[in-house]
Model the fold of this input.
Amino acid sequence: MSRDKVGFGYVWYRLSNIPTAHCAFWIIMFICLIALLSGLHVPLSHYGYAQTTTDLLAAPSWEHPMGTDELGRDLFSRIVYGSQLSISIGVTTALIAFVIGTIYGAIAGFSGGKTDNILMRGVDIAYALPDLLVMILIGVLIGRGTYGILISLGLVSWMGTARLVRAQFLQLQHEEFVEAARAAGQSGLLIVWKHLLPNAMGPIIVALTFTVPSAILSESTLSFIGLGLSPPACSWGTLASDGWRSLRGHPHLILFPSFFIFLTVLSFNFLGDGLRDALDPRTRLFNYGKIVQDPEEPLENAAPALVAKE
Amino acid sequence: MLGLIIKRILLAIPVLWIVASITFMLVRIVPGGPFEGDKALPPEIVANLKAKYHLDKPVHEQYFLYMDRLVHGDLGLSYKYIGRTVNDILADAFPVSLQLGGAGLLLAICIGVPLGTIAAVRRGSGADFAAMFLSTAGISVPSFVIGALLIFTFGIWLKILPVALWESPRHLILPALTLAVSPAAYLARLTRASVLEILEKDWVRTARSKGLSTDKTVVKHVLRNALVPIATVLGPLTAILVTGSFVVEFMYAIPGMGRFFITAVGNRDYDLIMGTTLVFAVLLIVSNTIVDIVYVILDPRMQVT
Amino acid sequence: MNSKRKTIHHSLIAVLTLFAAVTLTSCNVAKHGAIPGTLRINVGTEPPGLDWQVETDSTSFDVVSNLMTGLTQYTPELTAAPACAKSWDVLDGGKTYVFHLRNDIYWTDGKKLVAKDFEYAWKRLLNPASGAQYAYFLYPIVNAFEYNSKKVTDPNLVGIKALDDFTFEVKLTKPAAYFIYLTAFCPCCPSRQDVIEKWGRRWTDPEHIITNGPFMLKHWEHEYKIVLEANPKYFEGRPKLDQINMFMVPEQATAFALYENDELDFVDNRSFSTPDVERCKDSPEYHNVPLLRNNYIGFNVTKPPFTDVRVRRAISKAIDRNVFPLILRRKERPTSSWIPKPLVGYSPTTGEQFDPEGAKKLLAEAGYPGGKGFPPMTMLYPNRDDVKTVVEELQDQMQKNLGISLGLQNQEWKVYLQTLHRDPPPLFRANWGADYPDPETFANLFTTFNGNNTTEWKDKKYDALVEQAGTEQNPEKRRKLYEQADHYLCNDQCVIAPTYLATQNAMVKPWVKGLKFNALDIQFYKEVSIEP
Done:
């Protein structure tokens, strides 16, 4: 069956035929590269992080393309530097939430009955505990630094994914193809992996991509409760939350960090959508209304009027 | 269905008990106490204060005292708002958050679900891209920036809506909008993804090939089946919105529960933290139970226990 | 691709236009927003309560200061002027105070104010059962400490007594030059035993509370607003305002937007973010008032390398204090002394002056030439916007001026307080606001027994100097003693490095008349009127 063809090359081929996803992929790669280089202390901007008392809160100019902050530091350099933490936090938290949430939700949704009920009450409890206190406590136990941030953000963001996966599984359990697989004596794990998970992927990917911005932004809350970064280190989240009151006087302080968060999240959204389509061979791909021909399979004759209008 | 509801009510008791117990321990483990002030107090005075609120007793005794009161519906005394019981505070604040959160939730659904459906049906079109941009902006711009932009635009610049405060129904518009932006964005993306999944299903293609019109198919068959993930996120979302968002309540000076909760955490107002957490937990359990019932209505084959 | 780029482009242009439009409408002066007889202000947060013996925070005092009048009251110049007491005698070389009360003051329920109301209130402040935090204010009184700490159980042994209806006597254990200021302080305002006993914890509700000041509590919507109403029977005459609406708008930007839209008549620091201060500092509505609130860098003198006074002095010398007003942008006043400017004991030469060369030399003498070998050091600070800017600046200055690389650690407010009080780190940032306009409130902080002395510095010489200054009755001698103590603290021992004094930044609508500011940051509205 066509579903067995999920190989890297195949997915990549399909992905590169979705221009938005393809473009998003390279934008993400580029941002990751910048983050990596700044992490390795490669000087990407000759302004560096020097403080001055002469160029405070300068507007964007040729000298400082994104302006300077209240201590005279070049905002462009700060954003480059901040990408390191923000990108790694966004991606890692999303992955943690994805792994924990999917496994947890899959167990609950696939088992059903008592197991499901107990596991879901567990999710209720995890949801109900005040995040803020949990984070303060983690900050005290683990101490500051990247691990503390990752653990606390991961711990408070997996529940949504778990609930989504469980609901999808409960619904899909009774689809014909699952029943058929069951009747054919396929093992539970195989059914989950081959039939349930691929069909539940759409909402899961949305949840995954939405964890990225919320993690990037929540990181600034963490530094508020003393768990985040130590100055002068910065991240996009802290830049945005430090700068927003200057919205009227010095809009560049909030505009640029927000824009980069936006760009990153947008790219993840497009990539996520593209990945979902690329992973699921049933989906025909649409490149501005033109149907992308699958390399190995002749196109079915059914006209995709419903999905590819305009 | 009735069995499900009764079962959930019975299960709610141990869940609430666990939440209460963990939170009880949590507030006491977290460093900083309610009487740790700007200016340090002589130990004599701290001892007096602790005695007044039974904080001088061993933790297990405090726990039994608290649980005993809780069983009788007494959520305790606030340390910060002197002379007020937690019950009083929540009775004042919850209705405010309920109105605001209800309005925000309604807006989020009314914006998010249609936007997502259109984006899915007109996949790849300009409308789809516009929806994608809007929802991405909605989730990646922090809500305080969105709030500030709305205040400046409609309050100061155009002067057509009140800047803040909680006086008339008109004062509800901007905060509810601010509150709705990010859930609406999330719902839009989720609806789109979920509708697309369903559109790919064989039976939809069949329905279509039998000559049913697009709009009719979408409304009648697709949306109904696509609603499961939406209902799923609406469960916790309802509880979160209705118990108040502290950013929006701070921003617009609205006396809701979110504000009380954050202030309580900052002040280590133990009983008030416990009270707000328990109210949230109850709402969460109720809305998640409703969601499970909705599953059965949407798709009678789903087996929820 | 194309359409995506275009959309980005369009939305960017739209956003930029919006910003431009909003930015250009800078500080505009509106004309017609006044409500005659009503003052609308922002107190920022909910006062935790209005029980003036129990409360400790500035918001509660903002309200109580306008509801109640004590034995004395502050003039705008911060001297204690007669109020409920028309005069007082200081006897026994400063150890006994006898207050003579006016006989024409009535509570809002028509009852006459008597000395018993003061006796009850002060004993209530000291009663351990009240759990009042400011009880320690009255510790100079005979047996006050003993009663509050349950060593004495009989309240009659405390040196507080109503001799008759209009005479109130207080006996101190030793003379205290600053004692008279305490009588103007909110927790020392009189209280009504019958009211408090009748209503219990709810006596401060608008329907129960009985007050004697210029305004009465009319309405209280929690976490939203408090409404005060003029007291027609106020003994100095009915105030000019009919009503004060005190809103609780926690977000500065929002509160300032309300001011701009004429929905508030007066805003201060609580509603005035730094970008807004910058935008409006040339407006005729703008006011800047220096406050008695000093910010300092503290050293834990028991933790190396700060056990060495040369290291402490080097750091204090390496701080360029003139930068603070530039980066904080609220017209802060740099200071090198601990006792701030208008108070007796202040001297401009006290404290280490900025001298990077001298600082380097001292550091080299201590064994760290050019910062070499200096142990890794982390400075603790609480998480607040302006504090972060300050410590980042200090971090930079230490690197530039001494070659020391300083780590920074922020903590959530309560955690920070706990750390400071239990195990003070080697280096921390803190501040202190005056409780009353006397150097004692500052000097006392670093004495051995002060619970807020987090430097772990215990010095008998300093204790003796401060004690002597506190009991000294001759003003000139007293000034010299405080000067000496301050020099010892900031130069000789260099236990702290004071940095700058905070300021109050306010905007007042042109129709608000008679509003006066003071350095203690307490607002009195009895003289204010609205004249559109």
